[in-house]
Structure formats: structure tokens, C-alpha cells
Specification:
Family: Belongs to the NmrA-type oxidoreductase family.
Keywords: NADP
Strand content: 15-25%
Protein name: NmrA-like family protein-like protein
Order of helices and strands: EHEHEHEHHEHHHEEEEEHHEEHEHHHH
Radius of gyration: 20 Å
Oligomer: single chain
Pfam families: NmrA (PF05368)
Number of strands: 13
GO cellular component, one term: nucleus
Number of helices: 15
């Protein structure tokens, strides 16, 4: 009987990447979960041989049914969907409920061998209660829920996903053109040396997830508390400098206050600013798991980035795509 990999949010960015990688890998029968099985995106997945099923992450029973028979599950939630129309606290409540529902359904999936939970670190623990980043908060609470249930915890890989290269187009990160100065600037409430951990292309997510699933002796080991999906770490200043080089623009990094950025972007500045302040304070501890253990990354998983020293140019199809390469494929 074929092993089933069930992917939550199969028509989205993360889920779509996992589905695409799994279809190429051909080890699993792929099941995609979506809210609307009649959407064009869902129909496109069906045409590729994906079993598409409907489920609502707000309804545990529907998730239990969708998970039935799964060998492996890739589960995720989206803080920013409720955040579009609600404040941060309400979005946290919605996301925590959804993440807990997914975990509860996984607990009821008797066939389950590996649960990959797309999540983020506990910023309050790492900063001794000083900083809580809203879009990290619910995910870390679900981490705690999972760890309280040993039968699920021993099957779970906490999967930390770094920032997409395309986030350069989002509020707060998109460079601001200042024609009078012939400059493009970024405004952030942190110093220019603050580390910014980058995923590169979202297509990398699927490669990471398949590497996680293929190496359970590593990724389900008690000594591996979490996996970080990232290609590189740049300082905030180097991040902007790299974009300027690719786009052919003069740039300047401007450090300001959180309050000033909130005057420009409102709640988005509060959200992203909290994350930036966390990264500045946490430094090398930013991606710690809940017990303070070291998180493993692409090197331990055997993944290489296209163009890096020692990479085999004849095997680039299975390699990760870094931030610079993504930006070079975009119009500026």
C-alpha cells in the first residue's frame, strides 16, 4: 500500500512547494488539503495526480477525516490571513486554535509516522519575556501543546521557515524610493548589523521537507529539536545592499524608532518591527528550540545552494535557490 503524504494548504505557497517536490520525488502518494476543491488551483493539482480533499482548519472533525490513512503530514497555519482584518491578539487566537486543531487531528491519525509542523521559535522564552512577536506566538504555543502529548511529539519535526526572498516587496521591507536623493531606503527600528535569516525561494520548502522525511533517524531524533529552512543569513544592511546591487539602485539603510515606522505602516510596522527587535536581541539564539537546543539546517540535511562553492553544477535541479538568484529573476 502506497505511503500517503498529506499536505495542508496544498494550493498555497508552502503547501504548493511541498506538493511539487513530493510529486517529483515519487515516494509518496500525495494528498492535498484545501478549503475549496473546485478552485482552479485545486483542479490543477488533481490534473497532476494529487488526491485533493476538503477540510477546514477550524473544524477538527473535517481535519481528522482528511488525515485518515496518512503516513506523513505537512501542517501549517497562516497568521496573516486573520491579521488582514483583525488585530494581532485576535489573529493569535485564531491561529492557535487552528494549529491546535491540526495537532489534535494528527493525534487521532493511527497510521501517522511523521508530522512536520511549520512553526517558529518562542520569542518570549528566548528574550526572557521581553519580546513577543505576534506571528510567532501562536505557533510556539502549538509547539508546547505538541510536546505535552508524547505520542505525537515523538513523531514531530518542528520546521522553522525563514523569510522568503519575495518579502522584499512587502510592507516595511520594500525599499522606499527617494528621487530627490537618488536613493532607495529601508526604515527599521534596529541596527544595520541585525541578522536577517533568509529562505531564498519558497520552492526550497519542498526540498527541505522531503529531506526531513527521508532522514527520520536524524529529524525525529531527540537530539534534533527543530529544523531551520534557510539558505543564508545577512545583516539588515547587507540585505539592502544586495538588493541594490541586483536592482542597480543606490541604497541607504536608515535606523529609526518603532514609533516612527508605525506612523508609516501602522500595525504592519508593529508586527514586523517586533520581529526585527527580536532578531537584534536574540542574535545567534534566534532559532533555538524550546529547550534551548541547537537547530539543524541545510548542511546537516545534505542540501546545497546553487552557485555556492563546491556545488555540483550538473545536479542543480535538486539544489536550493538563494535570495540573490530569486531577485535576479524579478523586474526592478
Amino acid at each position: 500500500m502506497a505511503k500517503i503524504l498529506t499536505v495542508v494548504g496544498a494550493t498555497g505557497i508552502q503547501g504548493g512547494s511541498v506538493v511539487a517536490a513530493a510529486l517529483k520525488d515519487k515516494i509518496y502518494k500525495v494528498r492535498g488539503i484545501t478549503r475549496n476543491v473546485n478552485s482552479d488551483a485545486a483542479k490543477a493539482l488533481k490534473a497532476k495526480g494529487v488526491e485533493v480533499v476538503a477540510a477546514d482548519v477550524n473544524d477538527v472533525d473535517s481535519i481528522v477525516k482528511a488525515f485518515e490513512g496518512s503516513t506523513a503530514i505537512y501542517a501549517l497555519t497562516n497568521f496573516f490571513e486573520p491579521f488582514l482584518t483583525a488585530d494581532a491578539e485576535e489573529a493569535i487566537k485564531v491561529e492557535e486554535l487552528q494549529g491546535t486543531n491540526l495537532a489534535k487531528a494528527a493525534l487521532k491519525t493511527m497510521s501517522l509516522e511523521h508530522y512536520v509542523w511549520s512553526t517558529l521559535p518562542d520569542t518570549k522564552r528566548i528574550t526572557d519575556g521581553e519580546i513577543e512577536v505576534p506571528h510567532f506566538a501562536a505557533k510556539s504555543r502549538v509547539n508546547t501543546f505538541i510536546k505535552k502529548h508524547e505520542e505525537l511529539a515523538k513523531k514531530t519535526t518542528l520546521f522553522f521557515v525563514a523569510s522568503y526572498a519575495s518579502n522584499i516587496l512587502s510592507p516595511v521591507f520594500k525599499p522606499i524610493e527617494v528621487p530627490a536623493a537618488n536613493l532607495n531606503i529601508q526604515l527599521h527600528p534596529v541596527g544595520p548589523s541585525t541578522p536577517h535569516t533568509l529562505l531564498g525561494s519558497p520552492t526550497n520548502i519542498g526540498l527541505f521537507v522531503l529531506a526531513v522525511l527521508h532522514q527520520p533517524s536524524l529529524t525525529l531524533s531527540p537530539s534534533t529539536p527543530a529544523v531551520l529552512a534557510a539558505t543564508e543569513i545577512l545583516s539588515y544592511a547587507k540585505y539592502l545592499e544586495l538588493w541594490g546591487k541586483v536592482a542597480g539602485k543606490r541604497t541607504a539603510y536608515v535606523q529609526t524608532t518603532l514609533g516612527d515606522t508605525e506612523k508609516v505602516w501602522g500595525k504592519w510596522a508593529s508586527e514586523i518591527g517586533a520581529m526585527s527587535l527580536f532578531w537584534e536581541k536574540a542574535g545567534s539564539r534566534a532559532w533555538e528550540a524550546s529547550g534551548g537546543e541547537r537547530t539543524i539546517g541545510r548542511v546537516e540535511l545534505g542540501l546545497r545552494v546553487k552557485g555556492e562553492e563546491g556545488a555540483n553544477v550538473d545536479a542543480e535541479e535538486g539544489m536550493l535557490v538563494g535570495t540573490e538568484e530569486v531577485w535576479r529573476g524579478m523586474e526592478w
